[in-house]
Amino acid sequence: MPDAEDVRRIALSLPDTTEKIAWSMPTFRVAEKMFATLPEDETSIAVRCPKEERDELVLAEPEKFWIAGHEAQFAWVRVRLAALEDEAELRDILADSWRQAAPSRLLDAHPRLGTSAGG
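Predicted structure:
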């Protein structure tokens, strides 16, 4: 099962990613835009996710994904680390969130990052 250190290591391995403490928790940013957080007791992460996809994820896998009340109006979803299959799934989730926050210059420089084709 992936843990907080796996989240940190994978997130920081993504291009131009930095870690910053905000709201008393670690947050991960690309070009100053947040794409992941390690809230509360670090047993879950919050990541960017388009609302339509987020709702489908929560309905399909409620043991893995949920929407925190204070994040409901934003395009974010929570992911239970214990429910993830492996580190590869965590990497895919973080890379997808990274792509949503990254500026086009980074997307152009890393077109396959986080896709099944690798990076």
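Summary: The helical segments are 4-13, 51-60, 87-101, 104-109.
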